[in-house]
Structure formats: C-alpha cells, structure tokens
Amino acid sequence: MTMEIRFLGTGTPYPDPERGSSAILVDVGSARVLLDCGRNCVQQMARMGISLTTVTHCFLTHGHYDHIADYALLSLTSWRYGRQHALKVFGPPGTKAMSDALFNEVYKIDIAARKSLKKGEKGEVLPDITVDVSDICHGNIVEGEGWRIRAVEVIHWPIPVSLGFVLEAGSKRMFFTGDTSPCDAVREHAAGADLLIHEAMYFPDGSGHYRSHSHPEKVGEVARQAGARHLVLTHLQPNVTSETLLNDAGKQFLQQITIAKDQMSLVLDS
After folding, report:
1. Domain that holds residue 8
2. Is pLDDT at 43 greater than 90 in this prediction?
3. What pLDDT score does 210 carry?
4. DSSP alpha helix (H) spans, 26-64
5. C-beta separation of 22 from 165 below 8 A
6. How many CB atoms lie within 10 A of CB 134?
7. What's 44's domain CATH number?
8. Is the Cβ–Cβ distance between 181 and 160 less than 8 Å?
9. What is the Cα–Cα distance from 253 to 84, expressed in whole angstroms?
C-alpha cells in the first residue's frame, strides 16, 4: 500500500507569498484524504492539477482559521463542479456545529440559488451539498480500504481540543501533529513512525507561545525520543531560513529532516 503525501500549505496565519496555510493531501488506496484545509489549499490543488471532486475525506485538527479557512470553499466548489459522493469530514468537538452554520446559514442563499438555476457543471440539477460531518476525540479511529486514521489529542493551549492524526497503511505509519507544544501524546503515538510531520516555530522567550507551539530544537528532541525515521518541519514562519531550522532540529535529531514546502511530495511505500 502506497501513501502519496502532497503538501498544499506549509505556513502560518501570516500572509506569506511562498506558503499557504496548513493543508496536506494524502492519496492512500482508493481514498484522497485532506489533513487540514487552510488558506489557499483549493487554489494549490488547482495549480497541481488535482480535481477537488476527488477528495473523499477531510480531517481537521482544530478550529483556528488558518487550518479551516478553505473548508467551505472546498465543499462548495467540489459540489458545484460535480462531486457525487458525500464528503466525509472529521474534526474535534465543534466541527459539526461549524459546518452546519456554514451551509445552513452563511451560504444558504448561494446554495439555494445554484440549485434553483441548475448550476451543475453540465447544467444538471444539483443534489444537496452532502457533507457528512462527525465530531471525534482522542482514540477515535476512522478506517478505509487498507488504511486507518487514529485521532490523538495534543496540547495547543487555549484550544479546548486539538488533534493530531496517525495514518497507517500496510506497514507504513505517519503522524501529523497539527499545532502542538511538545507533549507525551506525540512521543507515544509517533513511536517508530516512518514519517513525523511536526510544526516548528520561533517566538521570543517568555512570550507564552510555547504553551501552544514547538521550538524546532524541541521538535527534534520529540522526534528523537519517539524514534521517528524521518522528520518533516511545517507550519513555518516567513523569513525563517531552512538552514536555521535544520541546525536547530538537528541538534537533537540525527535522522533525515526535511523542510516542508508548498507543492512538495513524499511517498511512503509498504
């Protein structure tokens, strides 16, 4: 079983001409799984020639806008241009309420207008928008054909519940942390992972941000303690050089380190 991992957005909330916000697309088996749906990921898929209608699952780590900004755009545009299946969406408590508010209130005029005007790709009558949304929490598992995803609660203060996701397919396992401070949940659930995708950020000492985020040197330490085989740093700030990131993470982690870039691809092959 092969996992093809494409980085659609590798930046932060700050507007960055080089990076969109958090979004990773994983092709595994017959599924096309989106991990986070941050700003610019829909446009990035268009640039990469990936049809939005082919996304089958969307897993959201938490409710910060830089991780969900394109969720409505993905759902509406894929529906408008031919998606026939229900988009299966999973996220922490509050995800279903957010989705209901978007499609039952915020975009209800747009949805009703397009349905009344038969605004499908070929002029056909549009069905309901069909998003199947589930709130999930630590330990919940979602399974597909030859793969499964486990939700892991991480620490991203003051967000009540923020999730990372372990994706397993065949003999391969990857862990995407979402936003997190260094925590035992990552050490435990990334143990022996073939790929650990971890946020890495810099803030002034004493600013309090490290209650929510992880300094690259601490990320390297977590990866070493977990025994991960390959570390990818993401959620990267503008004007931070790859050399600085590699030097800091490499003080603790001596295995392969990659600095994520938008449109970068990796393959895990069982």
Report:
1. 2-269
2. yes
3. 87
4. 41-47
5. no
6. 12
7. 3.60.15.10
8. no
9. 45
pLDDT for residue 10: 98
> How far apart are the C-alpha atoms of 163 and 127, rounded to whole Å?
32
Count the Cβ atoms, other than its own, within 10 Å of residue 107.
Answer: 16
- 209: pLDDT strictly greater than 90: no
Separation of first and last alpha carbons in the chain: 5
Q: How far apart are CA 1 and CA 167, in angstroms?
A: 12
**101 and 61 Cβ atoms separated by less than 8 Å:** no
Mean pLDDT of 140-147: 96
205-228 CB burial, b ≥16 within 10 A, e <16: eeeebbebbbbbbbbbbbbbbbeb
Domains: count for the chain: 1
Check if the beta carbon of residue 151 is closer than 8 Å to that of residue 177. Answer: no
Task: Tell me the C-alpha distance between 117 and 13, whole Å.
Answer: 36
SS3 124: coil
Distance in angstroms (rounded) separating the CA atoms of residues 194 and 176: 11
What does pTM read for this prediction?
0.96
Amino acid at the residue 75 = S
The confidence score (pLDDT) of residue 121 equals: 64
> Which helix (H) or strand (E) element contains residue 195?
strand 195-199
CA dist 9 and 169 (Å) reads: 23
Residue with tokens 């380190």: 257
